Amino acid sequence: MFELVVPDASFYPSFAESHREWGGAHQDGAGLLPDDDITSPEGFAAWVRRLAGAEGVAEVGGIVPCSYRWITGGQRYVGAIAFRHYLTPALLNSGGHIGYGVRPSDRGRGAASWALHEVCAGLAAQGEPDRVLLTCDDANTASAKTIERCGGLLEDVRMGGNGRYFRRYWIDVARFEPGGL
Q1: From CA 43, how far away is CA 155, in angstroms rounded?
Q2: pTM over cut 0.90
């Protein structure tokens, strides 16, 4: 049903549809930066190349090496999930290791839970890290349920710099059957 794939420029039409669905909202896990041009095929291809190279980059300005995967169903872009290889102090406080987002029309189908499980199984196969941190807005009950379904244990609820509360969860990766990331 779903598959995790390395970002690929061939998904441009489907991603463009998804981007319109988001209506300008931030897309967790997608790796979109304010300067990224994803509206043209050329800009989209450049962004995809940046994502593909993000695993081997040196930390700059709090941006750490990161593995991006897209959740797909055939040639349909369903969403994205990202694994940050380590945490800076800021990420330890409020960002976490893993971020994900599913396009609005595909929510409620289990894509986020499936992808989070697959990423954790891939990390289990690698043998590290032992556990991963995930955060979500306190009001985002769907994301909280996704994290909890995958074994997330709530550590605490904190106030972010934006004045909104967010939840911090830890998932023990070792409990997952090894799989591929």
Answers
A1: 40
A2: yes
